[in-house]
Amino acid sequence: MSNPPSGAASFVKTSVKQPYIWAIAALVLLLIINLIKDPSYLGISVNAVTGDLSGNLIDILRASAPIMMIAVGMTLVIATRGIDLSVGSVMAVSGAVSMEFMHDAGDGSLGSALMAIALALGISAFLGLINGVLVSIVGLQPFITTLIMMLAGRGLAKVITSGQNTSASNEFFRWIANGTVLGFPVVFVIGAVIVALVALLVRRSALGLMIESIGINPKAARMAGIRPVGLLIFVYILSAVLAGVAGIFSTASVMTVEVAKTGFSSEMDAILAVVIGGTSLAGGKFSLTGSVIGALLIATLDKTIVFLAIPSSATPAFKAIVIVAICLLQSQRVRALFSQRRARTSTPRKEAVSA
């Protein structure tokens, strides 16, 4: 009779089944690779005057905040069998609105910074509302709807800035991206708080289950009394608002919005972070924890590419290899093939012992 697994063995067995465990393994592997090149890579120093923390890990946390925002919003959209390709453009619109307002105000006050943030998030929510209405009420495909918004949003940002890169001067706004709280980057602290609030909202209420039910079986969800229209509008508005937050984070770091570059290809990073985190593109069950880990992995991967001095021409290939490897390790079919192979190799050994 076989003994029941110990607590540690049971924990390991349960952890391996988590869809994002391979993302954690890849994250650790990237850090080990960087450590091999530079043993002091994970070192964190403290500024004796300000008390701020500095180091590569702090830089990774700071860079992961915008990705984390759009990944969390994208997770909920994908859970409903949708997609949001407009998050990068919404980031550009958010940055354009905030920079233009503060540039015109020119006083550098806290009130101007708060008003700029409110306007940026307000127009982001409006763009998300348009996406939600077109998907849930008009019945357009999410891919087509958000693709149109991706093009229209980038054009709107150009109209707001008159096609020029807009800069502003406001220390309160700059503090959001470059300031620190207890030594940690403000931008990451704000991002972590927002993620925690979203997690509480969808996991401590029936909202998360209703979102998952729409993605698993929309017809059964309707028969159970769940109205998808309001939920779809909500997730697209939330995705756009979080993209607006990411746009504020991105522009606040340099206090300049570049319409052609702000948020460029961010939608791809968001989708990759969601997939790496274990959420299926087919909709249904989702993992906000996995998406956050995916965002950290992508930020670490970008940092590693720069740190290893990989040529820009080879960067997409390097990034694709890492991500494909993680997705293969997450695949149940691939794991089943490995399990079958292990079973075949272990059977002859058992027969040999019994003989």
Automatic annotation (TrEMBL):
Q: Which GO terms describe its molecular function?
A: transmembrane transporter activity
Q: Which InterPro entries match?
A: ABC_transp_permease (IPR001851)
Q: Which GO terms describe its cellular component?
A: plasma membrane
Coiled coil ranges (UniProt) are: none
Bilayer topology term: Multi-pass membrane protein
Residues that span the membrane, as ranges: 20-36, 57-79, 114-137, 143-160, 181-202, 229-249, 270-299, 305-329
Q: Which cellular compartments is it found in?
A: Cell membrane
Q: Would the keyword Ribonucleoprotein turn up in this protein's UniProt record?
A: no
Instruction: Name the domain of life.
Output: Bacteria
Which keywords accompany this UniProt record?
Answer: Cell membrane, Membrane, Transmembrane, Transmembrane helix
A Pfam family cross-referenced in the UniProt record is BPD_transp_2
Mostly located where?
membrane
* Descriptive protein name: Monosaccharide ABC transporter membrane protein, CUT2 family
